[in-house]
Records
---
Amino acid sequence: MAGEVLDNKGRGDVSWSWPPIHPEGRKFGLITAAIALVTAFFAWETIAWPMAFLTLGVLAFFRDPERVVPQADDVIVSPADGLVSLITEVDPPVELQIDDGSGSKGLPAGKVTRVSIFMSVFDVHINRAPIGGTVQRVVYIPGRFMNADLDKASEENERQHILIERQDGLAIGFTQIAGLVARRIVPFVKPGDIVAVGQRVGLIRFGSRVDVYLPAGTDPKVLLGQKVIAGETVLAELGSQKLIEGIAQ
């Protein structure tokens, strides 16, 4: 199905398949599987069985399913799988605003809506581009490893800012934030790369969060507490401002 065009009129062919494992996770799966096999060979069942289950958990964590990405100029798609844990008005990170000498003007100053998506260890951890365009900035900042569900994790945790700019000048910034057990943010892109909307841009190992900074004058189409899917869920429509209410049930 990869690369095939599908639509809301029924065009295209689909079928269920096991999601592939991202190469970043295969080495961890091989290590735990090898330990499980060796301990099973020596009949150390108290170690072999836990390692076998750990192998399945590692492979599930690094799963990399295909996604059907909406193709429309006015949509911003979710860069992460997970729970919408915070929606708040903030100033964008200074690293995404200042003139860094690259020729990219960065995000304008002023309050914008930040949508925070918390990824538990059960979510897919491959992050995707919310819009298509040129990667203007990839800024890594070392920091702490607090619970990524906390608001202050945006300023204190280890994190990586990414800025993507379209040809028409629209720029979207988002931040990958390491969590309580996450210990590495892995980028797949660098400044100057051209990416398509929904393209894989990186991953965070073992529980984390992604913050997305919407342009001024744009409200999210997702609700607090909603589950979103990277590359598929429409996070916002450009220029659309509307209160949307939901009921948990």
---
Amino acid sequence: MRSVLVVLFDDVQSLDVTGPVEVFNGAELHRPGTYRIRTATLDGTPVRTSSGLTLVPDHALTDGRGTAPHTLVVPGGQGTRRPAPDLVAWLREHGPRAERLVSVCTGAILLAEAGLLDGHRATTHWAYCDKLARDHPEIEVDPDPIYVRDGNVATSAGVTSGIDLALALVEEDLGRDTALSIARHLVVFLRRPGNQAQFSAQLAAQTARREPLREVQQWITEHPGDDLTVESLAARARLSPRHFARAFQAETGMTPGRYVDRVRLEHARRLLEDSADGVEEISRACGYGTPEAMRRAFVRTLGAAPAEYRRRFRPAPSPTH
């Protein structure tokens, strides 16, 4: 039996709470006796979430019950922008006693204020990564992944990534079959790889204001294997290559080449995770031309060759009995 304690506070983000709770509860329903889930506020009184829902806790953090859970979950929300000193003090005292510390979204701010992320690699919602790094230079803040595991500390990005992290923890605790059953019930992916970017290439870049440039962005996304040189894209936008390159960067925040690189890498990752296509076939489909060109792009960006990436992140088939 693993105890899971979820900390509640005023203006908490409701999905940061209910997402992981639904995952852990799904595991308990699937395999009774595996998790005991409780929620608690400092004084045991109900709290109002940022969306207006009222959550009634099981007990108070200060009543002495459950101060050393197996998994301590700290959700995020508007309430983390003005952390209550008493809550931070409780986390500072009792957080180190948990076997596993987990934050969802800006819950990482509370863990940081309590000194529990010092010396760790961590992430949070993309909009607050710079603030977390600026306010707490002793933390190695990684703004890209949807979740980060560093020892017994696990931090996740915005909102729904808490579900991905919870599924990964259940898979670690109880195996893939249980996590897969929960994911199917919740109608979500088994788990997105933790190092999957918070933003897709399309979201990471700003949407161009001018229609020809927006059309080019869409074309790149839909045709990663085509000729995507600046000259070719400029002709599609009916601009000179020099004018196109300047306008594209000004309106999207990245160069055409950088945008193409991100789209191709993202497409290749999806094919490696979701298809049985070979590396050579995928490299052609994504515009790399050769497996070696794709390998260099993967090693440079992800630190792993395509074959190794597939071994790490493509779900293995469940054993048959």
---
Amino acid sequence: MNRYRIPEIAEKYMKYDMIQSFTELPPLSEPRLRILHAALNGQLTTAKHSELFTLVTSLVQVGLDTHDLIDTDGQRRSEREMRSRQLNVLAGDYFSSRFYQLLAQAGQIEMIARISGAVSEVNRLKVTLYTKMRSLKVTAEDYYSQAVRIKSGLFHHFADLLEGSVSRLWPELLNKLSSCEVALDEMRRTESWERFRSSWGYWYIIQVGTDEERYKLTSASMENRYLQGLVEKYGIHSQLLQLLKQSGQEVKTIVNRMESERLVDEMSRIVDHMLNTLGDHVPALNETR
């Protein structure tokens, strides 16, 4: 049984002075990675590769998430902002490429093809979503479902390596777990105008708000006080919190349907820890600003 230590191992591939000086890397997806490691580690056919497969998945995910930090706005920037932008490009490419090296060294050529295919699919989903957003042809519901698909996309292909009830339940489990993470991410995005733009709350207000509110949302900037007024008026936090709680409960229900008691216990602990951790953020996010 391999102890989960992906953050410690991944750190040596991610901790570089140049990157830390000019930009901030996105965090690892602990819930998805822990669930993946537990599933792979719980069966004889994949246990010996559970750490390697989870590690390379974490690096590819960080690479994709780092590329998402790149601001495509064409306005003039300071030298430091330009350096940060360049490092986001290079760091994302670097993290994405390390999985090739690690898997090739281990002779896992088939896994390279699997992950490469998953990356292509995630990028296709992103392009489709961004195209709809640019033309203002996306609803809040469309945005949320696509965000869940994008967040879970890198992990779906592991279903073919799993067995029994874990394999059958994997897509559903992964989608509901990703929904929890999307809900929390979207709650955090209400904290500033820069992050709120093109978020779930943004598209929800575009959909149901007044003409004046829609006009202000599509402008170049917005005062944080006005933004927080909109967030409170349309109950953005409470709606996302409800989605979080509902998805969390569905995750626990799915886990309890698995055949292995040991795996049920382990995954239940992971889910409980995730929900407790997420809950710690909710009061702060609901404060009136």
